[in-house]
Amino acid sequence: MDWDHARVFLAAARAGQFLAAARQLGLDHATVGRRIGALERDLGARLFERRTNGCVLTPAGETFVAAAEQVEAQMLRVQADLAATGLETAGTVRIGAPDGFGTLFLAPRLGRLAERHPALTIQLAPLPRTFSLSRREADIAVVIERPQEGRLVVRKLTDYALGFYASRDYLARAAAPQSEADLTAHTLVTYVQDLIFSPVLHFMPELFGPRFRRFECASAVAQGEAVRAGAGVGILHDYAARGDERLVRVLPGLRFDRTYWLVTHADTRDLLRVRATADFIAAEVAAARQLFAPSP
Q1: Which pLDDT band holds residue 13 (cuts at 50, 70, 90)?
Q2: Beta-bridge mates of residue 96
């Protein structure tokens, strides 16, 4: 059996489409189909049901996924062992991170990692509602809920806090809220409830009641820009907002504490590019510990 055919099979199984697998692997759609067809002939079993909107694993395909992933894991371990002999940190590493942490904290700092390792290609991707390291959708993930299942390696990055902010221009037009009840007199800049990717980001579900006026933004970055522009009062990350002279912390008694976790897959954590990137992220967060401390 040709391992390269199995590699193409795994990509298609994870993507659910031959076309998506082809894009991921840098192949054309017909080549993916031919290689999977060759693999099916070698195994004497049909691995996929082809459908107009994608492909679905057959029972034989589900059985073969487990075997192919074991082979893949072994090859990754060998790759990690070889990388540890002093070879250059090279290749592509994809980091999945929440919009706020990825854009507001990581993006300005990852350039230093790129300078340190010129042969390393760094990809920073927003974290969607569902994200799988086991399917190789990312090499490293920063998450706000500690994973409880899977062959994952998890380490705590830092606790962080969020609070209510408004712009100085906005507060020149509207009286600062002194209590939670006063929020009914303001437009609240907040998230789009049905697009939120984690339940721990439901800071105050009661704000979605009929008493409150809202301007809803799907991203933390958009919420911050709207608050800075004077659109209303919003819940922002302390580490991004409190150093901004345009913003004022209001309702200081209302604070929301959360945690960032750094997650890698057990099969890939020792790859040189993954280990170097994960260690860099952890070091940058540790160096900025005071930044993540809650506002007094």
Answers
A1: confident
A2: 125, 141
